[in-house]
Specification:
5 helices; two-stranded parallel ribbon; mainly alpha
């Protein structure tokens, strides 16, 4: 199944708009552990991938579990830099 087909299935199951379903399908097919987005409506896609709002991430509500899921893919320094940059933007 390609990204377009998977996006169509995600759209049908979640009621997400097609562009949002394409983002979710692309993340799933790309092997992402989670999506960190500013749009709470994408939480409808939680069946397919873990969705964390940027506020949850910055406030630390999800920071530890997201960081744990990324260990081994990034160095501690890279994770720390990403967290700092995210906090600086908000």
């Amino acid at each position: 199944m390609g990204v377009a087909d998977q996006a169509g299935s995600i759209k049908a199951e979640t009621g997400l708009k097609l562009p949002d379903a394409i983002v979710v399908a692309s993340a799933v097919r790309g092997g992402a552990n989670c999506l960190i987005l500013n749009d709470e409506s994408l939480k409808k896609a939680s069946k397919f991938i873990r969705v964390v709002t940027s506020k949850e991430f910055v406030d630390g509500e999800e920071l530890e579990s997201v960081a744990a899921s990324l260990k081994g893919k990034f160095t501690e320094q890279e994770l720390a830099r990403a967290v700092r940059e995210t906090r600086d933007e908000h």
